[in-house]
Design goal:
This is Xylose transport system permease protein XylH. The protein has 17 helices and 2 strands. By secondary structure, the chain is an all-alpha fold. It folds into 2 domains: about 5-160 and about 240-270 and about 280-365, ABC transporter involved in vitamin B12 uptake, BtuC (Orthogonal Bundle); about 165-240, no CATH class. The chain has a two-stranded antiparallel ribbon with strand order 1-2. The longest helix has 28 residues, at about 365-390.
Length: about 400
């Protein structure tokens, strides 16, 4: 079998994983044409990253919850609640910005523990618990704010949501130096990790990915990261929240792919009874899963409030729907047991690019909702089709 036919056969078997990449590329090309080049304008690329950062943060936690076979409908309300508390702590009470951030993240953990207790140890379905949480924390947001708004936030909190890393000068007359250095280092890290993992799999006789596809995938990843680096360096440099997102993606991808806890999460969603019989502490795993979701919801609340420079009773409305959609569009299975952090990030980017591209070409919000609904339905239908095709084979 030739290298090309081997690669094509492998791609066919991995249609679920690569389909989302193909969809992202197709959407970018489509809107780049429809917007007459505005979509990939350096300023617009930076705006897309910053404006969708909170959804991407929520999507990381949400995909983990969905993989375990649960759902969290309360994250939007948690975003609003934590933003309100951050406003009270940092503006009305005058606490240092770093202390306000720590207290808000701790409060997010408490919120997650509250919901995790009812799901894991009391046995109430997550849908019901988080639906109640959505109402509880939306109400607490209004109680904390007293139906008013809090603004302005300290500069450091604003930087978390919409600030940029320091400018260290320019290379080649127009590229911001720090962004170029970070982009090159990120590319080298990704390539090095991919090569290292492939060598480990080959040594353990677990490698089934054709070499040709591995090279193409690696080259595409490197070019993509360097292209984003170039675009960001051509504008104002690296957004602070992009660094936060990068750290989260690396850490949580490692947790889900290489840690015992990550394997237990997949086991819960894949087959709960088998996980119990295998000795997995399912209650503890579920409890910690919701604690983690609470912390990420708090971080998203801080990012969004800082980005708006405003704590408002309506902050976070509908965010849970975007996070859930990002996870499913990114390849998470409805029945649990399948999904990746990277896929959720790509799903969130697809939603963000759809929103941004349709806004640029003047599509109304009514049709935007309609189109996003069709995309979500198509993603889930594709997942169901793949399962039936695999079962048939």
């Amino acid at each position: 079998m030739s290298a090309l036919s081997s690669a094509l056969k492998y791609l066919t078997s991995q249609l679920r994983q690569i389909g989302i990449f193909i969809a992202l590329i197709a959407i970018v090309i489509l809107f780049q044409v429809l917007t007459q080049g505005v979509l990939l304008n350096p300023q617009n690329v930076s705006n897309v990253i910053v404006q969708n950062s909170y959804v991407l943060i929520l999507a990381i936690g949400m995909v983990m919850v969905i993989i375990a076979g649960h759902i969290d409908l309360s994250v939007g309300s948690v975003v609003g609640f934590i933003g309100a508390v951050a406003g009270v702590l940092s503006v009305r009470m005058g606490l240092p910005w770093w202390l306000a951030i720590i207290l808000c993240l701790l409060l997010g953990a408490v919120v997650g523990a509250w919901q995790g207790f009812w799901v894991a140890y009391f046995g109430i379905p997550a849908f019901i618990v988080t639906l109640a949480g959505m109402l509880i924390f939306r109400g607490l947001t209004q109680v904390v704010l007293g139906s008013t708004q809090i603004t302005p936030f300290p500069d450091e909190l604003r930087s978390l949501g919409g600030g940029f890393l320091p400018n260290l000068g320019f290379l080649f007359g127009q590229l911001e130096t720090l962004t170029v250095v970070l982009g090159v280092l990120a590319t080298a890290f990704l390539v090095g990790q991919a090569v290292r993992q492939r060598l480990i799999r080959r040594r353990l006789n677990l490698e089934d990915e054709p070499f040709l596809w591995f090279v193409v995938k690696l080259a595409f990843t490197g070019v993509l990261v360097l292209a984003i680096t170039f675009l960001l360096a051509s504008y104002r440099g690296t957004p602070v929240v992009l660094v936060v997102l990068g750290v989260l993606v690396v850490v949580y991808s490692a947790v889900m792919a290489r840690s015992v806890y990550g394997r237990h999460i997949y086991a819960l969603g894949g087959n709960l009874n088998a996980a119990v019989l295998s000795g997995v502490k399912t209650k503890r795993v579920t409890f910690l899963l919701f604690v983690n979701m609470g912390v990420l919801g708090a971080l998203a609340g801080l990012v969004f409030a800082g980005q708006l420079n405003l704590a408002n009773p309506t902050n976070g409305n509908g965010f849970e729907l975007d996070a859930i959609a990002a996870a499913f569009i990114g390849g998470a299975a409805v029945t649990g047991g399948i999904g990746t952090v990277t896929g959720a990030i790509i799903g969130g980017l697809i939603i963000g690019i759809l929103n941004n591209g349709m806004s640029i070409i003047g599509v109304g919000t009514d049709w935007q909702q309609f189109i996003k609904g069709i995309v979500l339905l198509a993603a889930v239908a594709f997942d169901v089709y793949n399962k039936r095709r695999s079962s048939g084979r």
